[in-house]
Structure formats: C-alpha cells, structure tokens
Design brief:
12 helices, 8 strands, single chain
C-alpha cells in the first residue's frame, strides 16, 4: 500500500465520523483522565496495577491456550464487578461525595457565605494556632466547604458562635470536655466542637503522626474540607487537604495559604460561574 492509498483510506474513515462520535470519544477520554487523576495518588492506584496484571495474564492464557489458568481468571473476572465495588468502596465513596463540589449545591453555598466572615475567621484561626504552637496545645480545626459534614457535626456539640482566638483557646484548653474533638467551621462561624472524625487508613502515613493528624487527613480524604492541625507534641502547624498533609506553617504562611484556598479560589469560582472578569506528605 502506497502513501496515496493510505491517505485515501484515512479520508474515507474520517468522512464516516459523525459529530456524536467525536463527542463520545471526548467524553470517554475525560472519564479516563478523571479516573486516572483520582487513583494516581491513592491506594486504588496500586490495586488497579494488580488488576491490569490479571488482565494481561488472562490475555496470555487465551493466546497460549493455558486452559487451567484461563478458567481460573475467567472465574475471578465473572465476579469482578462486585469485587471491585467492595475493594474500592472507600475510594468510590470519596469520589461520589466530591462529585458535587462544583455543582448547583456548591453555587448555593457560595452565595450563602460572606467573604468578610471567612476572612475574619481565617485571621482568628491563625492567631489561635500561633498561640497553640507556642504552648504546644493540640488543635483540630475543619473548614467545611461544599461537602456538608452533618454526620460528623452530630457527634459533637453545636456552638454556632462567631470565631475568636479566645474562644478557640477555651475549646482546646486541655481541661475542656471538648478539647479532644474537632472544631467544624461552617459559613465563617464556629458551628460545632468536640466532633469525632474518621481516621485515615492510608498505610503511607508516617508513624510519627498521631490520632489527631490521622483524623485530619481522614476527613480531607472523605470531603473537600481544609483542616488545620496543631501537634500537641511538637507544636507544628499542619494543613490537610485532599488526603495530603502540608507541614511547618507559621502564622503568616498559614494565613496566606488559607486565604488562597478559601477566598481566592471562591472568588475565582464565582467569576467562572457568572462570567466575570497555591512539601506534600501523604
């Protein structure tokens, strides 16, 4: 086949492509891209590698007529869908919970939040965390965003108060009955305190981190929340988001990071919606 025939064949194939075929290919590519990004930094990525190896073995068993191996692998894949749902249950739940991050629900939450309230709350949190770091007072502060944390709020005590560094100090005072739990901030206000959060089961988390850090990472894995953590042992201030932990913040860097993630990102989302117009450790 010469080059002219090859070009003619390509033109003939291209002429049969309809607009919905193009849309179909784009959507499938997008699904695979989103799935890849989601599992890339999670335990599910390792599990998918194992599944890919089994698929390769299945193909080899068919090509080389390995009947016993082919029968075994076909049996495994016959119940594969149920197995995948069971094995990937934490990841699937996290994906579904985060799917509505930029949905109409997110638009509603943005309209209900006051930028001034969030800004004032960030300032008070940074002042409090700076004090906690110096006194080595443990703290766990969760900024709720689009994913609602009602089931975790129910485990604590409703406060519904304006944020202040002094109030944070009282809530995390080591004699306070609420100091071991998390404070959840909703719409720029201290909504609840003494809340129990899910612990991360990520095996890659360093053993140096205790329950407070695992709880902060855990809630960030299951929602889009941003979590500020102060270590009781070292006074180190950390931020957990999307299952990752960023450490060694001071008052200024914490303020800048929270403003970028909570204020600038929100403003950017509003502009895109209405047409107007920042060392990770797992």
């Amino acid at each position: 086949m010469n080059i002219q025939e090859l070009l003619d064949n390509l033109v003939a194939v291209a002429s049969q492509i309809r607009w919905n075929d193009v849309v179909d290919i784009i959507l499938v590519t997008l699904v695979f891209f989103v799935a890849f990004r989601f599992v890339r930094d999670r335990r599910a990525g390792r599990l998918l590698i194992g599944i890919a190896i089994l698929v390769v073995l299945l193909i080899l068993s068919m090509v080389l007529n390995m009947n016993a191996l082919n029968y075994l692998l076909n049996t495994i894949f016959s119940v594969g869908l149920i197995a995948i749902i069971i094995v990937f249950q934490p990841e699937l739940r996290s994906a579904l919970e985060k799917m509505g991050d930029r949905s109409i629900r997110g638009i509603k939450s943005m309209s209900n939040e006051s930028g001034a309230d969030i800004e004032r709350c960030i300032t008070e949190v940074c002042v409090a965390c700076d004090s906690f770091s110096k006194s080595k007072t443990g703290a766990l502060i969760v900024f709720e965003r689009n994913t609602k944390l009602g089931e975790y709020i129910l485990t604590g005590t409703i406060v519904d108060a304006s944020p202040s560094s002094m109030l944070f100090g009282n809530l995390f005072f080591n004699k306070s009955p609420l100091h071991d739990g998390a404070v959840i901030i909703r719409d720029g206000r201290i909504h609840a305190a003494g809340c129990f959060l899910p612990l991360s089961i990520n095996p890659d988390i360093t053993k140096e981190l205790g329950t407070r850090h695992r709880a902060g990472i855990g809630i960030s894995e299951n929602s889009d929340a941003i979590v500020v953590i102060v270590s009781e042992e070292t006074g180190t201030v950390s931020v957990a988001e999307d299952g990752k932990l960023m450490r060694d913040f001071d008052r200024v860097s914490l303020d800048n990071h929270l403003r970028t993630r909570l204020l600038q990102q929100k403003a950017g989302a509003k502009r895109s919606l209405f047409g107007k117009g920042g060392n990770d450790e797992k």
